[in-house]
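Entry 14. Structure prediction run on the chain below.
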Amino acid sequence: APPMQNFSQPAPVVVAPKSTAPVLNFGGMGSTMPKPSALPGSTGGLPKPGVRGVQLPGMRTAPRRGRGVMNQATGSRIPVCAICQRQIRGPFVSALGKTWCPDHFICATQTCRQSIIDMGFVEEQGVLYCENCY
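Output returned:
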């Protein structure tokens, strides 16, 4: 027969080492949390919640995919090209919250430079590439 286990001894208690991080106390409610620390290499300031385009030093934003949409000029607002900074009088392309002259909405790869109006594109660090070159 298998040996009987002795359940009369209490299980050993494991105590975690005390944290050296500063502790925040929320109104004496008995709840404490370690204070968040800055990321290595940062100045300690974190971006505000909901702010787009803010990144910490040394970090890269993820590439974004999209499609350009050809629009006709309207009388209410004159778009400005993200490349040449000129007002666009006539059809224009819109994507990623920006506008382009149709001739400037092209792949950034020097050997390609094809129009990306009728195909998907990838934007990485502010530069547009056709799906073939990315």
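The radius of gyration is 28 Å.
Filed with the rest of this week's runs.
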